[in-house]
Amino acid sequence: MTSTLNAALALAARSVPVLPLRAGKLPFGNCLACAGNACGGRPTMKSAGACSCPGICHGWAAATTDPDILRSFLWAAAWRQAQAVAYHPGGAGLTVVDLDDTDAVTWARQTLPPTRTVLTTRGEHWIYRGAMRSVNAVRDGVDIKSTMAYVRWLGPGTGTMTTLPDAIRTLVVTKPSPVRPVTVPVPTGGGECRHRTPAYLERGIAMAEQRITEAASGVHATVYRTFLAVLSAHGRCGCLTDTHAARLFAAAQSKGESLRHCADAWSNARTALGM
User: Fold this and answer.
1) Distance in angstroms (rounded) separating the CA atoms of residues 137 and 257
2) How far apart are CA 154 and CA 87, in angstroms?
3) 10 Å Cβ neighbour count for 43?
């Protein structure tokens, strides 16, 4: 058993979801079945996504506390190659303020309440109890790592962990991501329309938008499943337009999805339906 796996098992026993990192502090890449997001999302056995792959190929979403998964043969090669252990702070109910340089550390000491501190190669990690949305570059040299992010494990640190303060939450301005114009392939249809009135389609699109914008977790998987449902119901008769697709993309981008991830999810949903 490798030292990285031993460290991971010790963290998992404390309910901290972990995963191995390869050289360069990078997660292991997708397997062939999951490449290009062809699987539709995160692995079901770890994070309620759309993918049933039990492997190590989904970055932060592969983090787990299950010792049987960590010791499984599917993960064995990754642990042999691993250069470090990472953990998913949001999955453990934590937030890490990643301070990348001395100026950022000085700002934190002057601004934030003290908490557990871990030294890094360039600065410090300040760890608070409580999860929030992860955002990079909230100010120079300061990243927030919590949900949908991973952090390299560098030891337990020093000091007493305290509750996530409002001073950190207010660093993150809650506003939709910029919605860029998008051109996506919309099925031209040709089948018989099952819609009794235009209101049927409008109600379906509005419900899809609401499902995405109200997702509290598993946003990526929710977007894929919603796209799949919309295309299944409305994609074969020619009623679905570029405007409808753009509305769905805008809803997904408002939850932090990138344009590329939106396009991948739309394309994969069309492929899954044979469109």
Assistant:
1) 17
2) 10
3) 24
Question: How do the pLDDT tens digits run along the chain, 275 residues long?
Answer: 689 999 999 999 999 999 999 988 888 887 777 776 677 666 643 443 456 676 788 888 888 899 998 998 889 989 999 999 999 999 999 999 999 999 999 999 999 999 999 999 999 999 999 999 888 888 889 999 998 889 999 999 999 999 999 999 888 764 444 545 555 555 555 555 666 567 778 888 888 888 888 877 677 788 888 988 888 888 777 778 888 888 888 888 887 777 777 888 888 888 888 87
How far is the C-alpha of 110 from the C-alpha of 202, rounded, in Å?
52
Q: Could you give the angle at which helices 259-272 and 242-254 cross, rounded to 10 degrees?
A: 130
Give the pTM: 0.63
Residue 272 CA: distances (Å) to CA of 38, 181, 205, 228, 268? 9, 25, 20, 8, 6
Question: How many CB atoms neighbour CB 134 within 10 A?
Answer: 22
Rounded Cα–Cα distance for residues 202 and 107 (Å):
49
3-state class (DSSP) for residue 46: helix
